[in-house]
Amino acid sequence: MTTQLPPGLQLEKVDERIMTLNVGPQHPGSGHMRLIIKVDGDYIVSCDPDPGYVHRGEEKMAEYRNYIVNIPHLERPVIHDSCNVLYPYCLGVEELLGLEVPERAKYLRVIASELNRCVYIQYWLAIYGIFLGHSTMFMWPAGDRELLIDLLEKITGARVTHAYFVPGGIRNDVPANFEEMCLKRVNYFEKRIKEYAAIFYDNPILISRTQGAGVLSREDAIRLGTTGSTLRASGVDFDLRKKEPYDAYGELDVHSNVLKDGDSYARSKIPWLDMLESCNIIRQALQKMPKSGSVRVKLKPNPKGGNDEVYKRVESGRGSLGCYIVSRSQPEPYRLKLSVGSFRNLICMPYLLKGEKLGNMPAVYWSLNYWPVEADR
Amino acid sequence: MSQPETPETKPVATAPPAKAPPPAAKAPPQKELPQFEKSIADKLEGKFSTKATIEFVKVNRIRVKVNKEDMLDVARFIRDELHFDHAESVTGVDYPDQKEIEVTYHLGSYTDPELAKQVLTLATRAPREENPSPGNDSTRVPSLRDIFYSVEFHERECFEMLGVYFENHPDNRRLLLPEDWADLPPMRKDFKIKGR
């Protein structure tokens, strides 16, 4: 093929136009993972996510430890959401061992997991804010989450890694004045996060940066098997707390938040709406909770499951979190698999970033509510 | 479920009352098979009487086992007729004593509100080799990526962690492990953690 060009001019080869960028794994804009991005000028041509930088082999470790010893290390994938990460594991082990959780423990689990959800979302929101250059949105959530962390510390004894849920209930009962203290803090917290709307969600700069960026249609959200806020921002009403209620969620009135736009703005707004809903759920649970009673059933030392398998799932801060346990009459699980929301949403990344401007990468990437450590496990 | 004789001890589709659980402390819904789940299992049995084995029917959970040759047909039926539309996870389980590796798909549905609670477990088995050479040995199953697009990354993970090659998967590359990993696939039982 010969193209007649004026003398002195040369055609640029396509290969020379395309530049490969390694975003991460140490890059602050990507979290602990690498995105191999090819750019043509300012536009992303292709994106190949490369997770695994913080892979810790949680599933392999679980095969060597018994059902109780597994508790503290299994919450490590997302320490900010540690109650929700342990939740499906505990539900699964309870089914394998045939344990019935006391009624009070069911409600306390709901309260702890909703508090933990808020703590996680606040952390995520802080990061989302700072990567969009909104430093107030970093300071506010980072400060306000201390309120709930303090509360969780009073319940569980640890600030972040609670290890509060155990198969058969919870580790310990709450302190005496817990209900009053919890209600006070949750009410203040709710009032406080409502103020985020004026500074962040109604902010024209945020809207112009995120609206229309990385649109995921309803059909694609289903086809790609996404979950959590990514799915619900694309108009699919699927919240396991409502669809497959576990523990005390069946007795509570849970509203699931759905938006139809499917863009980064909708994806960033769903977790915030979830926090408001969490406050509602906590207030309901405090009201309906039995005022006294046991919170834990006694386990035999080194309990063994039968020759069985179980798949349990809960709604975590990042979507459906499933735990698949294969038991072969041993005190240790024969195989344990965590099906985590972050890993399931990873598949969206090449899909959403293609054709997007490089400057929009953080806005789209962080809106997926992606937690690299969880995806790697 | 792992022993080969387990399907016979739980003859789910033929004699429901025989499934009385041996430990008395088990949850009561185990005694009677849940109706809705049973109807889905019956549809599968009606279509693939010999090819698909229903291993158990529990509340909201069904487990189907198929040979890897029939995997694509059964998966297509599950998607088109039973309306399961996405995969939640793909798990490989190593059984060195049976010289097999099991690949388990957990399928769910977003589009059909009736199926929102259901998780259908589709399991198949691949032969296991003592000295694995991932991608080049007989440990392979057909990829379901053309049927359930969402399995793409899950199958990649299963390939590197257990050495199960997914035929017709467009992208059987490493995902989580380092590029220079030269040891056994780490989720196999003969890969031991140091000091344990």
Main sheet record of chain B: 5 strands, mixed
CATH topology of chain B: Beta Polymerase, domain 2
Q: Helical segment tally of chain A?
A: 17
Low-confidence stretches of chain B: 1-29
Cα(first) to Cα(last) distance of chain A is: 51 Å
Radius of gyration of chain A: 23 Å
The count of strands of chain B amounts to 7
Lateral strand order in the biggest sheet of chain A: 1-2-3
Reading the helices and strands of chain B in chain order gives HHEEHEEEEHE
- CATH class division of chain B: Alpha Beta
Broad structural category of chain A: alpha+beta
Q: Kindly give the count of domains of chain B.
A: 1
Strand content of chain B: 15-25%
Strand content of chain A: 5-15%
CATH classification, class level of chain A: Mainly Alpha
Order of helices and strands of chain A: HEEEHHHHHEEHHHHHHHEEEHHHH
CA-based gyration radius of chain B: 18 Å
List key phrases describing it:
heterodimer, A: alpha+beta, Cytochrome-c3 Hydrogenase, chain B, 3-stranded antiparallel beta sheet, 8 strands, 46% helix, globular, B: 196 residues, alpha/beta, Beta Polymerase, domain 2, two-stranded parallel sheet, 4 helices
Please provide a brief summary of the model.
The complex is a heterodimer of chains A (377) and B (196). Helices cover 46% and strands 13% of the residues of chain A.
Overview of this protein structure:
The complex is a heterodimer of chains A (377) and B (196). By secondary structure, chain A is α+β, with helices and mostly antiparallel strands. Chain A has a single domain (55-376), classed as Cytochrome-c3 Hydrogenase, chain B. Helices cover 46% and strands 13% of the residues of chain A. The longest helix of chain B has 13 residues, at 35-47. Chain B has 196 residues and is an alpha/beta fold. In chain B, helix 4 (152-162) links the parallel strand 6 (140-142) and strand 7. Chain B is 19% helix and 24% strand. Chain B contains four helices and seven strands. Residues 1-29 of chain B have low confidence and may be disordered. Chain B has one domain: 2-Layer Sandwich (Beta Polymerase, domain 2), CATH 3.30.460.80. At the A-B interface, helix 2, strand 6, strand 7 and strand 8 of A face strand 3 and helix 4 of B.
